[in-house]
TrEMBL record:
Classification lineage: Bacteria, Pseudomonadati, Pseudomonadota, Alphaproteobacteria, Hyphomicrobiales
The entry's keywords: Amino-acid transport, ATP-binding, Cell membrane, Membrane, Nucleotide-binding, Translocase, Transport
CDD domains: ABC_MetN_methionine_transporter
Name of the molecule in the record: D-methionine transport system ATP-binding protein
Sequence ranges assigned to domain ABC transporter in this UniProt record: 21-263
Molecular-function annotations in GO: ATP binding
Source organism of this protein record: Martelella mangrovi
Family: Belongs to the ABC transporter superfamily.
Coiled coil: none
Length: 366
């Protein structure tokens, strides 16, 4: 834990021994377009480590600084202060020639795929190897299994215009893997895809991460993407890391306002509108308390709601609920209402303390 500028205690990731990427006190200022003077800090004293072999998400709203962070990793930008270290090499200190070889060890996929329309699937994937001067035979030997891996063996002679968005991104992934990178950067790679295609591409990224042991750093503004595929996450806000840690921990107990409001957009992340409109913040005589119960870990598979009902001896009204999976772990949310009578509330509190059930009063309904 550490203090941020506003004095709030924020969560920080600590399990990052021998990271693949380290940002050490990185600040990136841009010149003001009006005055030409350094005015705007797109990144403000960012320290963060991307663990080796995992899929890590960087999430934040538009303008939070995500793309700037990624551009520092492959040396497209240099920090104004601080260091960026990739697999032990300080990329922020390298000249253009040295950077070229580092970039070969970093694959990248993009929102708009960046394929060459005049080249076939095969030729797009082969391109990084052609540029590196690899012979035709060797290229074929390396490319064919990759095209197979991304499920496009039937389409090697097709042009990008003949492919769907998901297929184009598969080409982008195969091309990124052609030079056998140790790190894959994904910049909003699923943002232009429909939800079903997004899931398929995310599954492919998981397979690649697992089977090739490739470290993936994925930047996105979509919580759904982070939830589905990452094991670690850093939430960015105004050029700073607002909080970071295991995705499951950050999603189930968010500490920063930005994380909370981004999570509210997920299905089940906020109250249904019809009840939300009736919620009052202070109890009135005879009203019900509205609670959010969260089930995970040991509380995920126990019949705690029926036990709660028996314990209170007063009706428990189930308002809404979802059962979901975060980073592969089950997670449920249930909104319930019961009498806000102090005696009932006290019994409920004892029940939560005894069982470890995570419960939070979100308001009252008359
Ligand atoms: N070359 C530049 N010159 C001036 N300002 C820049 C430059 N590049 C980025 N910025 C500013 O830095 C801030 C962070 O931009 P960045 O693209 O990193 O954010 P982001 O989180 O990736 O947003 P988005 O999701 O919209 O791409 C923005 O306010 C942006 O306008």
């Amino acid at each position: 834990m550490a203090e941020n500028v506003s004095g709030l205690t924020v969560r920080q990731d600590t399990e990052t021994v021998s990271p693949m990427v380290s940002f050490e006190n990185v600040t990136k200022s841009f010149n003001s377009r009006e005055t030409g003077k350094r005015a705007f800090k797109a990144l403000d004293d960012v320290s963060y480590s991307v663990p080796r072999g995992a899929i890590t998400g960087i999430i934040g709203r538009s303008g939070a600084g995500k793309s700037t962070l990624v551009r520092l990793v492959n040396g497209l930008e240099k920090p104004s202060a601080g260091r960026v270290i990739v697999d032990g090499t300080e990329v922020s200190a390298l000249d253009e020639v040295a950077l070229r070889s580092v970039r070969r060890s970093i694959g990248m996929i993009f929102q708009h795929f960046n394929l060459l329309s005049s080249r076939t699937v095969y030729d797009n994937v082969a391109m990084p190897l052609e540029i590196a001067g690899v012979g035709k035979q060797e290229i074929r030997k390396r490319i064919e299994p990759l095209i197979d891996l991304v499920g496009l063996s039937e389409r090697t002679r097709h042009y990008p215009a003949q492919l769907s968005g998901g297929q184009k991104q598969r080409v982008g992934i195969a091309r990124a893997l052609a030079s056998e990178p140790k790190l894959l950067l994904s910049d909003e790679a699923t943002s232009a895809l429909d939800p079903e295609t997004t899931q398929q591409i995310l599954e492919l990224l998981k397979t690649i991460n697992r089977d090739l042991g490739l470290t993936v750093l994925l930047i996105t503004h979509e919580m759904e993407v982070v939830k589905a595929v990452t094991s670690r996450v850093a939430v960015m806000d105004n050029g700073r890391i607002a909080e970071s840690g295991r995705t499951f921990d950050v999603f189930t107990a968010p500490q920063h306002e930005t994380t909370r409001s981004m999570l509210a957009a997920l299905p089940g992340g906020s109250l249904p509108d019809w009840i939300g409109r009736q919620v009052i913040s202070e109890p009135k005589p005879g009203c019900d308390a509205l609670l959010r119960l969260r089930f995970f870990g040991e509380t995920a598979d126990q019949p705690l709601v029926s036990r709660l009902m028996a314990e209170l001896g007063s009706p428990v009204n189930i308002i809404a609920g979802t059962v979901d999976e975060i980073a592969g772990e089950p997670y449920g949310t249930l909104y319930v209402a019961y009498s806000a009578d102090p005696a009932v509330m006290k019994k409920a509190e004892h029940f939560y303390a005894r069982t470890g059930l995570n419960a939070e009063v979100v308001g009252y309904v008359a």
